[in-house]
Amino acid sequence: MFPKPKPELIPNTYAYESEPMVKATGFREYDARWLFGKEINLMGIQALGMGLGTLIGEMGQKQEIVTAHDFRSYSASIKYALVSGLLASGCKVHDIGLAVTPMAYFAQFELDVPCVAMVTASHNDNGWTGVKMGANRPLTFGPDEMNRLKEIVLNADFKLKPAGSYHFVENFPARYIADLTKRPKLKRKLKVVVACGNGTAGAFSPQVMEAIGCEVIRLDTELDHTFPKYNPNPEDMEMLHAIRDAVLEHKADVGLGFDGDGDRCGVVDNTGEEIFADKVGVMLARDMSAIHKNAQFVVDVKSTGLFVTDPVLQKQGAHTTYWKTGHSYMKRRTHELKALAGFEKSGHFFFNAPIGRGYDDGLVSAIAICDMLDHAAGKTMADLKDALPKTWSSPTMSPHCSDETKYGIVTQVVKHFEDLKAKDAKVAGQPIRDLVTVNGVRVTCEDGSWGLVRASSNKPELVVVVESPVSEQRMRDMFEAMDSVLRTHPEVGEYNQKI
């Protein structure tokens, strides 16, 4: 028997050390995230491992799993608590040690193991922990699996078996690096800033980029789980500005910033200007669709409208589908449609064969960017960016909103704009051309300017993105229109960043 997890326990008490604590809101749409110590304890992580092993067996999958952990002060202890639960449920565990998330995904293929449990809080601030899970490579769990896992764990409905075993895989990073670099070197000599925010990617990214032929300028690649400079998140302006300064100082061809668990890559061009990931996706789609005719792409609802309107993509026969934001949703849709690639505005890119194996890997993205520059002899990163039709885009902006209330707020916001459209009312001074409600609400005005509000899938936040093909002022108008609706809800707090 194992105790049923409690939603809340007081630290530094007998109960906290003797009972599992698991807050229900930690089970997100496609992975799990908690504030360690406040929302989950080590016994709660152990319960999660038991639940995951039970679910894998329930799904009819072989109970064999890869596990790894990111570089935070507490991640190793969390992984071992998770492993103890997986062992109790009868799983054969292959532990590859300290790793970026895509290294764990690669291990599923390299070790021929069906399942994965990567202990990571990704780009979240210190204090957070979590697990990215899957039982059918290259896919990760979606809402159905996460809801069932939540039921099993919170009800302590475990099916425990004595057959578990543990295997540590020595020197696994060398196999991952070799797989990424067994390719011709770049013809063009590129000087590249590699920025890691002192996160896990710093242990692997520089040598991969050097091995493909880049001259690497290292920026905050030393491992330091206190993240002394900035949080390793290439969507945060602080990290992007640090990359900008390094690019300009060293006259680099491009700056590449990797997030905390290495599955995303942010880009700064040779002039020091950041290029948001959806625009990078358009640039890569142009490059790839010139080589692969009638290429199909999947992009998330936060992404630029250029995927549909760009004349180069149209001429090259590229076709793009918009889909739900979230690495698991995007990965699954890219896989289902057998698309050449999927691009998410957050920087999760999914490359199918011949470029990748379908999962998100920041280093595969970085190599694809270098290949694009290699194909564009004589052109800079800024040249390729400036060749795109001009739009004015915001970064991803996230006002605080509790996990308990955020989905209800978004439902009300969706209804607000649906009612406006039904009345032929205007938004930001213009009629609504269309609404996309597959994931929150994306409001597009008559001139093509649009704004999005959705609930974050992994943090107590909302997500706001705006873009205009007309002017910076129209972009700001759209932000005011979206924000004015959010300000009618007192539960919505301050933004992490604003335009």
From TrEMBL:
Matching Pfam families, A to Z?
PGM_PMM_I, PGM_PMM_II, PGM_PMM_III, PGM_PMM_IV
List the InterPro entries hit by this protein, alphabetically. A-D-PHexomutase_a/b/a-I, A-D-PHexomutase_a/b/a-I/II/III, A-D-PHexomutase_a/b/a-II, A-D-PHexomutase_a/b/a-III, A-D-PHexomutase_C, A-D-PHexomutase_C_sf, Alpha-D-phosphohexomutase_SF
- Does the keyword field hold Phosphoprotein? yes
Q: What GO terms are given for molecular function?
A: intramolecular phosphotransferase activity; metal ion binding
Instruction: Give a yes or no for keyword Transferase in this entry.
Output: no
Please give a single GO biological process term from the UniProt record: carbohydrate metabolic process
Keywords assigned by UniProt? Isomerase, Magnesium, Metal-binding, Phosphoprotein
Q: What is this protein called?
A: Phosphomannomutase/phosphoglucomutase
- Species of the source: Afipia massiliensis
